[in-house]
Amino acid sequence: MAGPWRSLAFTGAIWMLAAWVAAFNIGPLLASLGVDAAFTPPDISDSRAVLLYYGLLPRLAMSVVCGFALGLSGTLLQHVLHNPLASPSTIGIEAGAQLALAIMLVWFPALLGWNRDLVTAFGGFAAMLVVFSVAWRFQFNPVSVILVGLVLGLYCSAMVMVLAQMKDHYLTGLFIWGGGSLNQNDWREVGRLAPKIMIASLCAYFLARQLSLLTLGETARSLGMKLPLIRASVIFVAVTLTAFTVSSVGIIGFLGLAAPVIARATGARHIRHRLALAPLIGAGLLLLIDQLLQLQLSLGGVSLPTGAVTALAGVPILMLVMLRSKSMMQGTPAAQQGQAPSRRPGLILAVLVALVLAACVVAIMVGRDIDASWTLQTGATLESLLQWRWPRLLAAISAGVLLAVAGSLLQRLTGNPMASPEVLGVSAGTAIGLLGTLFLVSAPDYGQRLFGGFLGAAIVLALLLAMSLRKAQSSNQFLIIGVSLGAFLTALFSVILASGDPRAASLLNWMVGSTYATSGETAVISTVCAAIALSLALLFTRPLQLYGLGEGAARSRGVNVRLFRALTLGFTALLTAIATLAVGPLSFVGLMAPHLAQKAGLVRGVRQIWGAALFGALLMAVADFIGRTIYFPWQLPTGLTATLLGGPIFAFLLLRSGKTLRQN
């Protein structure tokens, strides 16, 4: 069967399956009430007719409209950016829109009543501009665009969680909405959204000829086409489609990626064919998933967020496309910088030790009084507070050391300076492992939780290794697959959390990195583990230096490459599990600390690891102090605070790396 016809047949099969499931859900009601009940406003005393007319049918229509919009948006973005991984999810548009809504809910609620679409559009465009401004430094390398977009999405989500911690009474419903809720109470929202999507879609189809000519590149410019204007117009339409959808139903994860990818994979090669079929595939997929969730609700009584469940299907497609697109993995989004080693590494390490000690003294002795004024707490007051402050501070510092060491080892092993436990999804794997432990053991102790977290982290690293070895070695494979795995596991956790299981709900405080209730025993265990980790990490320095010369050179000098790689990944998984148990899975310390050590001139083996560990300890000590005092009398979780501190540093490192890459 010819390409587009095969894609059309596949689209029809999706719609037939979705229609069959929808008929199974709605058919009995229609049969008992009559077909007229679907078109006539019901008597409010008839609960079944009200449910059908104002609930089930508007939800069905909303899923079709939103799926169509996201499928079309993803198609436009992938074509204009020449990037099969581009979508509203992977370049941060949806997360930016969610952050903008959260900010407006807290500080400018009147704007939402005036124009909610404008707020989400502003957030989406702002996020896209941030991604493009960073990716421009790498000549819009596909991997750099997606990496920056996914990490920006994580950072925006962390900011939303901070706002929720600070203003929970304003943002209680934001997480339900953020998970992609298609629930409807009447036809008003559908009536408001459908005309906007229709107008934006007509604009997209009006640009179909220009989109076809974009594939000609500079030849199109010679024909008189204004390429920058066309690209800007197409991106504007794509972001507008996404903003309208997010404003109405929240984030429907990765559907904008999956629909055009499926259209292309089933034979729709030409942009005109994808413009026609990808939106229909998106609408059919979302309708099918939502109807299956409603069927599951009727059978099991558990309501799951449609957006999070959609992400569970979309992320594997992202990884599949990345693995099949070998050409995309050439080049690195962040080049190693040739930082000259310091002539006085001992002095730098001594200064770092002094800074860590000073930060510890400040974190222990400085606080806020009852009237919120800053005060130096000593004597009996300090003694009464010490039992609360030292365990959390010690746990935070130990976690910083562990993550820094893990990040140093991963960056050297993968050869990519942007690798870290947080970016590669290892921390998210620890979270899933811990959740699995809670489901298997009613009251797990520290050792059982540590084993579960280690197992989850080790499985993620094993998957990363197995997938990256399928093709020629590329450090970018670790990055993009790792971030994708992290997004997948985060979506999985959201689905489990939405099920209402109290075992999952008990992890909420830990997920945001709260050290408030850290016990002295846990703090001491973490400290001992950090000291042991620092000592054992030194054993990896020489093999890592040989490994950096290439596997052949390492083997010729007696290194068992396969065993060494497995030991390094296992050791890294253990360090990540211990640290994540203390401060949660959200942090950029494992990414930042090795870079900061390198910038300080600590670029060689042992000194680099010790410098990274001290920087990690310093960052977490500062994060603990800021989280405890900045929003007095409430407290912000240490892990989230470290994430907010780490985001700008991450962007700075990317920009510096891009500058170096362009100069080379």
Could you explain how this protein is built, in words?
This protein has two domains: 60-325, Orthogonal Bundle (ABC transporter involved in vitamin B12 uptake, BtuC); 345-663, ABC transporter involved in vitamin B12 uptake, BtuC, CATH 1.10.3470.10. The protein is 75% helix and 1% strand. It contains 27 helices and two strands. The protein has 664 residues and is an all-alpha fold.
Helices and strands in order:
Blueprint: H1 3-33, H2 47-80, H3 93-107, H4 109-135, H5 142-166, H6 174-178, H7 188-206, H8 208-214, H9 218-222, H10 227-249, H11 255-265, H12 271-300, H13 306-324, H14 345-365, E1 366-368, E2 374-376, H15 379-414, H16 426-440, H17 446-468, H18 475-498, H19 502-505, H20 508-511, H21 520-537, H22 541-548, H23 551-556, H24 561-583, H25 589-599, H26 605-629, H27 638-663
Antiparallel strand pairs: 1-2
Core attributes:
27 helices, 2 domains, ABC transporter involved in vitamin B12 uptake, BtuC, 664 residues
N-C termini distance: 48 Å
Would you tell me the overall average pLDDT?
Answer: 80
In the predicted model, the low-confidence regions spanning at least 5 consecutive residues are: 327-337, 660-664
Structural class: mainly alpha
CATH fold annotation of the largest domain: ABC transporter involved in vitamin B12 uptake, BtuC
Q: Number of helical runs?
A: 27
The count of DSSP E runs of length 2 or more, i.e. the number of strands, is 2
Content of β-strand: under 5%
The CATH architecture designation of the largest domain is Orthogonal Bundle
How are helices and strands ordered from N to C?
Answer: HHHHHHHHHHHHHHEEHHHHHHHHHHHHH
Number of domains: 2
